[in-house]
Amino acid sequence: MKKNAMKHEIPEMGLINSYAQINQLSEIKLNLGSGGRPLKGWINIDNYDYEEGDTSRSGSEYDIKMDIRQLDADDETIDAILMVHVVEHFVRWEFIDMLNMYHAKLKKGGQFILETPDLDKCIEWYLRGREAPQINTPLGPMNMGKTQFYGNQWSKLDYETHRYVWTLREMVDVLQGRGFEIAHANHEALFHQKGRDMFVVGVKS
Predict the structure, then answer these.
(1) Residue 32 and residue 73: Cα distance in Å, rounded?
(2) Which of 65, 70, 116, 124 makes a 20 to 30 Å CA pair with 34?
């Protein structure tokens, strides 16, 4: 047998894994759709730079620019994935496809964490009318339940609109159906509106 006839090629590492290795990160935690709120200790990922006139974000600060529908990461290497007010920007079936991919990327015991508007609570707030919290928009004052139905309809940026707003029960069912155990499922939002937004943590079993 000739020398070098049996070479063992080292497989290329995913971009996210390479970033973590270069930066000597002990854990790989992804903040997907980071926008203007990057988090320390997380790899902040976004696919959009800040555009002047975007009233939904204060900026766009990311470590890696990437389409979060196709994460360039090795399977079973991610410790945690966080999505804060991101899933509502995708149609239902697209997010489910993304969720299947995220499940494959997470380690066993890895966490999928999300905060997103709960449709049931948005309807409750909308029906409260002016008694519910209001926010000033270029279209005038708006009920903060109604704003979540369609997202930003004034900055003329397609990716800032909302495609599908989930209920808490629906989200829990979908996560459980894809191999996640539910550690938390409540309305104690950490980033946006408590009482309106769901906070859910699923653990890969």
Answers:
(1) 13
(2) 124
DSSP state letter for 58: S
Pairing of strands 197-204, 106-117: antiparallel
Q: What is the reported pTM? A: 0.92
User: Under CATH, domain 18-119+156-204 is a member of which superfamily?
Assistant: Vaccinia Virus protein VP39 (3.40.50.150)
Q: Where are the domains of the chain?
A: 18-119+156-204
